[in-house]
Design a protein that fits this description.
With about 250 residues, the chain is an alpha/beta fold. About 25% of the residues lie in helices and about 20% in strands. Strand 10, helix 4 and strand 11 form a beta-alpha-beta unit.
Amino acid sequence: MYEVNISFLDELNDLLPKKKRAQELSVSFKGNQSIKHIIESLGIPHTEAGLLIVNEQSVDFNYLVQSGDVILVYPARPELDRLSGLFRDGKLTIEPHFILDNHLGKLAAYLRMFGFDAAYRNDYQDDELAHVTVDRNRILLTRDRQLLMRKIIRYGYLIRSLDPENQVLEIFRRFGLIGQMTPFHRCLRCNSPLSPIQKESILHRLQPLTKKYFQEFHICSGCQQVYWKGSHYERMERLIKRLVAASNNGGL
């Protein structure tokens, strides 16, 4: 029987049962086990770990744990992610293209609102989500721990909050997106890019009050939905202010 001591740091504790938080845990197991297996046996997907220290040495997920090892698991953050390959010097190494599972439709709309590519359907099956994530080099966003624990998943994040606006804050913090926003450039419905369009060419599609009070319009290149800076734009501006405030306060 092997036995190791493992500690999860900072916000990773929130993913542990309350009685196991903020303490060194003793874990016993039989045979050779990778450190990835040990971490996930405690309910924490490998996507949430950014740095692994064993006996004061940095290791990767393939490290075979030895009896008596002392393990520290640091959370994945832009400045501390050494395992996924997503970051170099705190900056993303790939374009932030996301795919979201079936229960994150509002989050998908928010990400699109800020100009990010967010693939979403309400009928994705887990196998499809996993394979699209890998085949199309997307970052998987989900509240399903088991899905993130699949071996093929490299890029992903476990959503904590149930509130869509707070979920956006989580994503911006995890992937360092505060400087990459291009608001009002993507369709909220189908995710396709938006393009400016002359008001005169769409007058027949506008309601009387919209014709009267708005002059700037965009159209979706996919579904042809027309957009203007109405109430959803005001919500976006409020959320942008929250994001900037969090950034200035060191929260992002």
